[in-house]
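Thread title: Can someone regenerate the structure for this chain?

I was given the following input by a collaborator and told the matching structure tokens would be attached. They weren't. Posting the sequence so someone can regenerate them.
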Amino acid sequence: MITKVTNETRPLYNSLFEEADALLENTEDTAIAGLDDYFSRITEIVGAAGASAVNTRTRNYEKRKFLALPFSEGYFEVDANTRTISIPDNFARNGLSVQGDQVAETLYFKIDRYFDAQDLGNMIDESLIIGIQWRDSAGNEHFSVSDYIDIVSHPGYVIFNWDINEEITRNSGPISFSVRIYRLDENKNVEYSFSTLTATSFISSALNYDAAALLEGESMNSLVIGRLTNSPAPSGTGSAEAPIIITNLPSYQDLATVTGERQLAVQAYSPDGGRISYVWQYKGLNSGDYSNFSGSNNNKNYIPTTDEVFMEDNTYYVKTGTVNGVDAYRAINP
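Best answer:
Regenerated them for you:
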């Protein structure tokens, strides 16, 4: 959710700023003035936190409590008696995250700290593991360990996190999840286990992409084509066909006015992973007729001219190479 200070959350943010000031030993002149100032120093704040922690669990809490934002975001509340998980309204409407997200969302769960004779928020016993077991729309099932456990902000409760990473958002559609709290003995046998019932939400569909490939120079066109090609067709009988991808294409482009190479493309988007198709046309140099430029003809060259000499009123096109596997031409005039 969006992180911002409101009248309702202002006291919580002021308390956070004061705690960060104390950690950095800020004076009145250097005190954190607001959210912009806070985020400009966030690396320094987190780096300074946790120096006196007694173990990894408390160190993670001391560091990540400065990142547990926004305060306005609702908790996924666990009823330890009924073992049910209540999903906050905004996540129930919009889903847990969007396909392709990488830790853009961190979800926070809230459960009563004491259940029967067990302290579910034991900060000393690091063998007690809290995490989320989940299954995506493709049937992939994994377990995400919570590395942020907070027993301070809400006395009598345990707050713990679920970082929504790219593995969780790889596939759009329904996602099922439950909370697991367990301890293994030295022989890896289950010594204690607490489980909730399964809750269901969804990962919203989006055009996926490979950020690392982008940094290596792969074009967004090929990435988008790959995403669409791997999407199911509306009938569910196979994969969607690869569209011709064009960006920023006007309805008509006179290549006679273009100098150098020009690649024509259009952005394509499918909200449901279905088939996208469209047609664009080219004008023959000799016939003057328009022909479809799509499907198996997507690499078709312009019709060679029959002119034996350059004609003053004609425009000619010279192939200069390829751009992303598509022939590129340069317009010339005599």
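The longest helix spans residues 10-24.
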